Amino acid sequence: MRTTKLQLFAIVLSVSFSACSNNSNPALPRSVNEVFSPKPIVIERPLAENAPKEIGLTVESARRQTEITKIYDQAYVVLDYPNGDVSAERGACTDVVIRAMRAAGVDLQKEVHEDITRNFTIYPQKWGLKKPDKNIDHRRVPNLQTFLARRGKAVPVTTDSADYKPGDIVSWDLNGKGLTHIGIVSNLWNERTKRYLVIHNIGRGAEAQDVLFDWQITGHYRYF
After folding, report:
1. Does residue 46 have a cis peptide bond before it, meaning omega lies within 30 degrees of 0?
2. Which of 17, 82, 168, 175 could pair with 179 as two cysteines, CB 3.0-4.6 Å apart?
3. Residue from 14, 34, 56, 148 nearest 94 by CA
4. DSSP string, 167-211
5. Residue 65's closest CA among 183, 218, 222?
6. Among 5-14, 84-93, 188-197, which is the least confidently predicted range?
7. What are the b/e assignments for 125-137, b being 16+ CB within 10 Å?
């Protein structure tokens, strides 16, 4: 019997990997667009002349991670504070953003921890914690979404690829049921689809992929 595209997508979705929403939920594997789309024609686009230097540092760090971070690992780890990090060869989707932002002088571990400490009840109460935890709070997508929104960094979520610029942070719902994911927009441009690749880690290490609209976008943030 011939397997249809829809049937194959269903098979793809049935495979379980790790995700970023917390320390136990499974994540989706390759998206249907990644499986069936033509190979991208990728070029590097220069940043705008008036772009803040922090954007260049953020994008450069995110791209460098694709050469270093080869393992997906969202395990709880006791970290140094501030500027704590897991081993560079591993991490979760949030670690891509944390490392990229840290290269631009923003330590999300410290910033998120301090804000949660002052405003604990404002943040999502999804993990049964009774107090802030500097080892994990910043490595959870819902917490990053809350922090970025509270800092006034949210910009409109649209379906127009022109609205998503290098250095932007994007979050998604992978399965329509709250399975969260996050990544950062690069300056690598797909000539076929006319949009920037996203650097993220969904289970195979940090990768630059044309997945911006593969899942439901739940947040769009511009820090610099």
Report:
1. no
2. 175
3. 148
4. T-EEEEESSSSS-EEEEEEEEEEETTTTEEEEEE-SSSSSEEES-
5. 183
6. 5-14
7. eeeeeeebebbbb
Output 19 or 87, whichever has higher pLDDT: 87
pTM reported for the whole predicted model: 0.87
Q: Tokens 């409109």 correspond to what residue?
A: 156
DSSP state of 4: P
Looking at residue 60, its pLDDT comes to: 98
Q: If we measure between CA atoms, which residue out of 160, 161, 151 comes closest to residue 190?
A: 161
Residue 68 near residue 94, CB atoms below 8 Å? no
- Residue 70's DSSP bridge partners are none
Strand-pairing partners, residue 181, are 172
What is the tens place of the pLDDT at every residue in 9-52? 443 443 334 446 554 344 454 555 555 667 889 999 999 999 99
